[in-house]
Write a structure and sequence with these properties.
With about 180 residues, the chain is an alpha/beta fold. The chain has a single domain, classed as P-loop containing nucleotide triphosphate hydrolases (Rossmann fold). Strands 3-2-4-5-1-6-7 form a seven-stranded mixed beta sheet, with helices on both faces. Helix 3 packs parallel to helix 5. The chain is globular and about 45 Å long.
């Protein structure tokens, strides 16, 4: 059975580095799934992406997958580990979609995970630990991401919360919350 690992936490907590650590331990061919696209005008984002690239082994492949994540997972092979960085950025690409279209995209992703042959590691941002966003789009992002992270966490083989310089193994430390009925 394929491994599904969820790595979540606040900004600058080391989520990506912890996910990279696990991908390296898998002893498989790693495909880094970048869910954003580079913009020539956004030099600060380009610098962040470059730091991530420098940290990764040169043997890892990179694919830009801003929307078709379910397809990338379906195409993954048993000998591969997909490191998806990040779930929040992927979700942001769907913020203009209405609830029905978003539900369809989310269901496609969850269905792909249920039948995945490859190992998958998700990096996911934690939102909602502070103030309620003052604008509707911010609340939509927070609510959709919180719900998706919860659903993936329920089916993941491992879940880590990265905070304060520590990786907390939530599957061993926590008690699973009852699953939501459909």
């Amino acid at each position: 059975m394929a491994e599904l690992i969820l790595v979540t936490g606040p900004a600058r907590s080391g989520k990506s580095e912890w996910a990279e650590h696990w991908a390296d331990k898998m002893q498989k061919s790693v495909i880094y799934i970048a869910t954003s696209t580079l913009s020539a005008e956004d030099t600060e984002w380009q610098e962040r992406v470059q730091k991530h690239r420098q940290r990764r082994p040169s043997t890892w492949q990179t694919q830009e997958v801003p929307r078709k994540l379910a397809l990338a997972i379906q195409q993954g092979q048993h000998s591969q580990c997909l490191l998806v960085d990040s779930l929040g950025t992927w979700l942001a690409n769907f913020l203009d979609d209405d609830d029905t279209a978003w539900q369809h995209s989310q269901d496609e992703l969850l269905a792909a995970l249920a039948t995945a042959e490859c190992d998958v590691i998700f990096v996911a941002e934690e939102t909602g630990w502070g103030l309620v966003p003052a604008y509707p789009l911010g609340r939509l992002f927070r609510d959709r991401l919180g719900s998706l992270v919860r659903q993936i966490g329920q089916i993941a083989t491992q879940v880590y919360l990265i905070t304060g310089g520590y990786a907390l193994d939530l599957k061993h430390l926590g008690t699973p919350f009852p699953k939501k009925s459909p």
